[in-house]
């Protein structure tokens, strides 16, 4: 069984819901919110999975998508294609760990 390391001050907050699973799993999707201000993607680091998660992130109309391991070629390639196609841009790439922030055109 998974043991959460979320501190009680967070886990007891009614705004907090812990869901363990893949956002692309059809059984998990109904448990997720309709909107999110920020979507954080820390994917399997394959091109295909990153593409899938970026497309899924659009369902939440976020103002930012934050990605971990942007320094990995498959992740960077998927993100670059995504922001070129969807009208987003890279606004930050924190090295050396590659924490990238993407922003939609409406915030330019």
Structure commentary:
This protein has 108 residues and is α+β, with helices and mostly antiparallel strands. The protein has a domain at 35-107: Alba-like domain (Translation Initiation Factor IF3, 2-Layer Sandwich). The chain is built from 3 helices and 4 strands, in the order H-E-H-E-H-E-E. The chain has helices spanning 8-11, 47-57, 73-86, and strands spanning 38-41, 64-67, 88-94, 99-104. A 4-stranded mixed sheet has the order 1-2-4-3, with helices on one face. Helix 2 runs parallel beside helix 3 (73-86). The protein is globular. The relative contact order is 0.14.
How are the SSEs placed, and which strands pair?
Blueprint (H helix, E strand, L loop, with lengths): L7 H4 L26 E4 L5 H11 L6 E4 L5 H14 L1 E7 L4 E6 L4
Parallel strand pairs: 1-2
Antiparallel strand pairs: 2-4, 3-4
Helix pairs in contact: 2-3
Shape: globular
* Beta-strand residue fraction: 15-25%
Corresponding CATH superfamily of the domain at 35-107: Alba-like domain
Given helix and strand content, the structural type is alpha+beta
Strand order of the largest sheet: 1-2-4-3
Query: pLDDT average, as an integer?
Result: 88
What's the number of helices?
A: 3
User: Which assembly state applies to the chains in this document?
Assistant: single chain
Q: Look up the CATH topology of the domain at 35-107.
A: Translation Initiation Factor IF3
Largest sheet descriptor: 4 strands, mixed
* Elements, N to C (H/E): HEHEHEE
Cα radius of gyration in angstroms: 15 Å
Helical content band: 25-40%
CATH class value of the domain at 35-107: Alpha Beta
Amino-to-carboxy terminus distance: 44 Å
CATH architecture descriptor name of the domain at 35-107: 2-Layer Sandwich
């Amino acid at each position: 069984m998974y043991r959460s390391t979320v501190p009680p001050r967070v886990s007891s907050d009614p705004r907090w819901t812990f869901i363990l699973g893949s956002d692309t799993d059809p059984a998990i999707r109904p448990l997720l919110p309709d909107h999110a201000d920020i979507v954080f993607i820390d994917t399997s680091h394959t091109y295909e999975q990153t593409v899938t998660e970026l497309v899924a992130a659009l369902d939440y109309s976020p103002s930012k998508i934050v990605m971990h391991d942007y320094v990995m070629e498959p992740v960077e390639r998927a993100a670059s294609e995504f922001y070129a196609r969807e009208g987003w841009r890279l606004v930050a790439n924190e090295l050396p760990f590659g924490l990238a922030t993407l922003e939609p055109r409406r915030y330019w």
